[in-house]
């Protein structure tokens, strides 16, 4: 028995984090036991467990995913903990020792200080101190504004960058904790400061000094000595300042570093009172280097430029060891695409995205300190001698999140699409979920964040990341009477809340809860969730309490292709239908969250409100005969996906969606709101083949079009790059914009079929209901959930379906085999796994699975191949030899005089055209023959 992945609030060995409500979790594997019979958790102030501060005792009620530690933790204390588990077969195991360390108490010796120098100077603030006896441990608790790096005796401390990250500085200021190795004798502690988000140019207004106009820092360096005494070195006016070698820096402009700069001039410091919120232990996961990429090519462009191709649209920077002569000025410019073979970055708008370096002639590692770039290509200017691509390394940075899910299929383009979405997440999960990482924006747009959150939770462990973002969301709501701004942190952006964007307050915490099974995220965010729904109700009440949200500005189905203005950003779907649908969706989520938290009064209150909204929606948008009055793809999708379709109107609504696809030649035209739910609505409502058709579409608009065009991340627009390789525009055209990567959630939930069960979140129980299709042949997934590792695969071969499923320790899964007959399903179970009962449920077979490995094989009751029919596009029929022969024999011999026209792409329409009027009996005869064609 192996007990691993010991985590606190989904963090491994957290140092100095906010642990107000510590929740412990662990995973058990490598055992023949099926369930956890009992467990014991020990917490100690000493690594050898000689100072046990908590002993749960052997208990049967310990939750592996969410054990809330019922003790008061002391500040500045490292705790060690371990777990013992007993299985149902008598097997037992004990984990390795893990640790977590609390932050300091609320008192501070240090003061906020700032250099007494020109405000434009990028400064370092430092203090020398002397240690004259053996040290037991040392910590620095502190933070610098805007961005900082901490140095001790000239060595950078910690592996993270861009501290303290981006958050609502005016509402709360998170500080960091560093474990220091001080030496006896004289030491120097130093904050290296840059402008960052806090002071530099940032936000939609492109203003500087959004939060403050002075570089500053505060810190308490605390040393515990072996003799039991302590010493604290706090920031005060005894600290000195000097220039650092960064001449200027900014999130958008980049950084200019002069290794020859004279930094000997010393400045005094002074106490200041920055307009920031109270100092708080950190919530942000570390921003660290997660991948290192080598350039794949050195390009000499037609324009005579020297350009590195990193082979991947990435976020971070490049690094190299300096070998340039003294005084050499190097310039690096960053871009996402080449145009006519030349370097290009006009789509970055006003973001200069540069890094310049003046060489001192000495070898040193060269990298930026106070900025980051989104790029694939790097233009190098000023290099002396030949450029060797192998001298450079791309450092990929993002918030620290363990990768959880991986999907592979029989189609390499689909596999690349999956990777593109994951790379989009890596590039945009940098302390906040940004819309894009490269142009003059890089902000926490809430709409993008919520529609991608389901995919994000499958791909990576985002619990801690979204916990921090949730605090920012609520911090901004408190300023806006519950409204959620379009960007979080707000950064001087005006405007009331908009539907779908505001749902970041409800959808994200609910997704996080479902995936990781911890109630703590709902407790933290419940006030925020309620505030957003209450805000929508307030808007509703202002205009007659119709239980609809029909006021204000809404982005609605942003960037949909069915808008009235060609190339416009607003789709055709009525914004108030979207806002009213989300009004219901969020209210229903809050009702469910209240129930989880045991707040029955709120559960009833919000469930009642949700039912009222649903009734009003149906009355407003559906006719008495069941026709949806807003005839757009997104309107049908939202009504189906969100459960807003009235009884009796279901079939007509499904047909409406089908007709919209047919009108659009079976291409999608949805935007930010409709796209995340489109394929899910199709697969959930009997149109799985169409979901795969949209996935596999290789032309515009479609996911694979981007892949074929060479994309390595997901684009902002369906046509960000035209078929001729030209970028379609520069005003709003990011090539790393994860929103449409939300298709990956459908890949997990429907293609693979693995979903967390709502009543037993965190995959304590999973529903595994794969929906295979012949177009990809096979698919497999490994998912490291909070409960353990699930593996699901399926393969279609020789007209048979084979499913392989692994269910981890102490979990349960309901497997749904599609189009199966219980009597024909062959089951192979690993040793120790009893064969589960097969239950016929309509056209499917359901099986309850205990932990273990299983294999299921059967011939489906319907053919898993492409089915041709009179409803098929004529183009598809003509590409298949058997179908084409049927048409030639049964259709063209009579109606060959009628030319094909693009306005009637489906055979049924052509057969019923004004010059054909094919008899119904003949249509049925042709349809039956086509369905047999292979």
Automatic annotation (TrEMBL):
<feature type="domain" description="Alpha-L-rhamnosidase C-terminal">
    <location>
        <begin position="758"/>
        <end position="826"/>
    </location>
</feature>
<dbReference type="GO" id="GO:0030596">
    <property type="term" value="F:alpha-L-rhamnosidase activity"/>
</dbReference>
<feature type="domain" description="Alpha-L-rhamnosidase six-hairpin glycosidase">
    <location>
        <begin position="403"/>
        <end position="750"/>
    </location>
</feature>
<dbReference type="Pfam" id="PF17390">
    <property type="entry name" value="Bac_rhamnosid_C"/>
</dbReference>
<dbReference type="InterPro" id="IPR016007">
    <property type="entry name" value="Alpha_rhamnosid"/>
</dbReference>
<dbReference type="InterPro" id="IPR035396">
    <property type="entry name" value="Bac_rhamnosid6H"/>
</dbReference>
<dbReference type="GO" id="GO:0005975">
    <property type="term" value="P:carbohydrate metabolic process"/>
</dbReference>
<dbReference type="InterPro" id="IPR013737">
    <property type="entry name" value="Bac_rhamnosid_N"/>
</dbReference>
<feature type="domain" description="Bacterial alpha-L-rhamnosidase N-terminal">
    <location>
        <begin position="133"/>
        <end position="261"/>
    </location>
</feature>
<dbReference type="InterPro" id="IPR035398">
    <property type="entry name" value="Bac_rhamnosid_C"/>
</dbReference>
<keyword id="KW-0378">Hydrolase</keyword>
<dbReference type="InterPro" id="IPR012341">
    <property type="entry name" value="6hp_glycosidase-like_sf"/>
</dbReference>
<dbReference type="Pfam" id="PF05592">
    <property type="entry name" value="Bac_rhamnosid"/>
</dbReference>
<dbReference type="Pfam" id="PF17389">
    <property type="entry name" value="Bac_rhamnosid6H"/>
</dbReference>
<dbReference type="InterPro" id="IPR013783">
    <property type="entry name" value="Ig-like_fold"/>
</dbReference>
<dbReference type="Pfam" id="PF25788">
    <property type="entry name" value="Ig_Rha78A_N"/>
</dbReference>
<protein>
    <recommendedName>
        <fullName>alpha-L-rhamnosidase</fullName>
        <ecNumber>3.2.1.40</ecNumber>
    </recommendedName>
</protein>
<dbReference type="InterPro" id="IPR008902">
    <property type="entry name" value="Rhamnosid_concanavalin"/>
</dbReference>
<dbReference type="Pfam" id="PF08531">
    <property type="entry name" value="Bac_rhamnosid_N"/>
</dbReference>
<dbReference type="InterPro" id="IPR008928">
    <property type="entry name" value="6-hairpin_glycosidase_sf"/>
</dbReference>
<feature type="domain" description="Alpha-L-rhamnosidase concanavalin-like">
    <location>
        <begin position="300"/>
        <end position="398"/>
    </location>
</feature>
């Amino acid at each position: 028995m192996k007990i691993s992945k010991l985590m606190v609030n989904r963090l491994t060995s957290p140092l100095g984090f906010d642990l107000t409500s510590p929740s412990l979790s662990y995973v058990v594997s490598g055992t023949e036991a099926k369930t956890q019979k009992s467990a014991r958790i020990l917490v100690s102030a000493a690594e050898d467990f000689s100072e046990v501060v908590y002993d749960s005792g052997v208990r049967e009620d310990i939750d592996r995913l969410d054990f809330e530690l019922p003790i008061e933790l002391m500040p500045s204390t490292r705790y060690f903990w371990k777990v013992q588990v007993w299985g149902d077969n008598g097997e037992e195991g004990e984990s390795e020792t893990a640790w977590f360390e609390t932050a300091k108490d609320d008192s501070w010796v240090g003061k906020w200080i700032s250099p007494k120098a020109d405000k434009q100077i990028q400064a370092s603030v430092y203090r020398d101190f002397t240690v004259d006896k053996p040290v037991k441990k040392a910590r620095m608790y502190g933070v610098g504004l805007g961005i900082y790096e901490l140095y001790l005796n000239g060595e950078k401390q910690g592996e993270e960058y861009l501290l303290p990250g981006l958050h609502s500085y005016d509402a709360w200021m998170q500080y960091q904790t560093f474990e220091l190795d001080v030496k006896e004798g004289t030491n120097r502690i130093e904050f290296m400061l840059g402008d960052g988000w806090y002071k530099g140019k940032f936000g939609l207004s492109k203003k500087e000094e959004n939060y403050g106009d002075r570089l500053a820092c505060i810190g308490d360096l605390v040393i515990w000595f072996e003799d039991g005494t302590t010493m604290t070195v706090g920031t005060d006016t005894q600290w000195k300042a000097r220039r650092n070698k960064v001449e200027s820096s900014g999130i958008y402009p980049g950084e200019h570093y002069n290794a020859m700069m004279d930094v000997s001039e010393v400045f005094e410091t002074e106490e200041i009172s920055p307009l920031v919120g109270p100092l708080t232990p950190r919530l942000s996961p570390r921003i660290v280097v997660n991948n290192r990429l080598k350039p794949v090519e050195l390009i000499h462009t037609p324009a005579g430029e020297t350009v590195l191709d990193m082979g991947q649209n990435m976020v971070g920077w490049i690094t190299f060891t300096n070998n340039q002569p003294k005084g050499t000025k190097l310039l690096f410019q960053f871009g996402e695409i080449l145009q006519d073979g030349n370097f290009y970055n006009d789509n970055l708008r006003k973001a200069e995205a540069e890094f310049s370096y003046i060489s001192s002639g000495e070898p040193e590692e060269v990298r930026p300190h106070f900025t980051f770039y989104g790029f694939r290509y790097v233009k190098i200017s000023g290099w002396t001698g030949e450029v060797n691509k192998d001298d450079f390394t791309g450092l990929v940075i993002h918030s620290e999140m363990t990768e959880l899910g991986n999907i592979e299929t029989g189609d390499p383009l689909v596999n690349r699409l999956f990777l593109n979405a994951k790379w989009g997440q890596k590039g945009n999960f940098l302390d906040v979920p940004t819309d894009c990482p490269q142009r003059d924006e890089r902000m926490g747009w809430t709409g993008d964040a919520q529609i991608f959150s389901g995919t994000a939770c499958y791909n990576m462990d985002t619990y801690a990341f979204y916990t921090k973002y949730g605090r920012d969301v609520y911090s901004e709501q408190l300023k806006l009477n519950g409204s959620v701004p379009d960007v979080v942190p707000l950064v001087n952006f005006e405007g009331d809340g908009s539907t779908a964007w505001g749902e970041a307050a409800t959808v994200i915490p609910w997704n996080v809860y479902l995936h990781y099974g911890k109630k703590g995220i709902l407790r933290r965010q419940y006030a925020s969730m309620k505030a957003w729904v209450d805000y929508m109700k307030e808007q509703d009440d202002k205009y007659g309490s119709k239980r609809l949200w029909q006021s204000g500005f809404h982005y609605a189905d942003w960037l949909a292709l069915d808008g009235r203005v060609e190339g416009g950003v607003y789709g055709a779907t009525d914004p108030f239908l979207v806002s009213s649908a989300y009004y219901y969706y969020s209210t229903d989520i809050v009702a469910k969250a209240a129930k989880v938290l045991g707040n029955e009064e709120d559960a009833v209150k919000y469930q009642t409100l949700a039912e009222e909204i649903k009734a009003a929606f149906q009355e407003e948008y559906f006719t008495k005969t069941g026709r949806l009055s807003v005839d757009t793809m997104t309107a049908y999708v939202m009504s189906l996906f969100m459960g807003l379709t009235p009884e009796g109107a279901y079939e007509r609504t499904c047909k409406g969606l089908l007709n919209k696809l047919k009108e659009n030649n079976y291409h999608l035209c949805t935007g930010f709101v409709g796209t995340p739910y489109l394929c899910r609505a199709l697969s959930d409502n009997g149109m799985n083949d169409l979901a795969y058709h949209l996935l596999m579409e290789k032309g515009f608009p479609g996911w694979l079009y981007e892949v074929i065009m060479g994309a390595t991340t997901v684009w902002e627009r369906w046509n960000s790059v035209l078929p001729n390789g030209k970028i379609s525009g520069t005003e709003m055209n990011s090539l790393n914009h994860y929103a449409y990567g939300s298709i990956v959630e459908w890949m997990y939930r429907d293609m693979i079929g693995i979903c967390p069960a709502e009543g037993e979140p965190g995959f304590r129980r999973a529903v595994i209901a794969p929906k295979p299709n012949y177009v990809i042949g096979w698919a497999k997934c490994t998912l490291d959930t909070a409960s353990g590792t699930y593996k699901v695969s399926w393969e279609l071969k020789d007209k048979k379906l084979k499913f392989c499923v692994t269910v981890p320790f102490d979990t349960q899964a309901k497997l749904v085999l599609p189009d199966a007959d219980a009597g024909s399903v062959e089951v192979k179970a690993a040793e120790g796994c009893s064969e589960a009962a097969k239950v016929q449920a309509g056209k499917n077979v359901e099986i309850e699975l205990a932990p273990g490995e299983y294999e299921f094989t059967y011939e489906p009751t319907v053919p898993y191949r492409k089915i041709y029919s009179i409803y098929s596009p004529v183009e598809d029929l003509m590409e298949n030899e058997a179908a084409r022969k049927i048409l030639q024999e049964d259709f063209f011999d009579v109606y060959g005089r009628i030319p094909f026209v693009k306005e009637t792409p489906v055979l049924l329409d052509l057969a019923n055209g004004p010059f054909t009027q094919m008899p119904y009996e003949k249509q049925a005869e042709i349809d039956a023959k086509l369905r047999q064609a292979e």
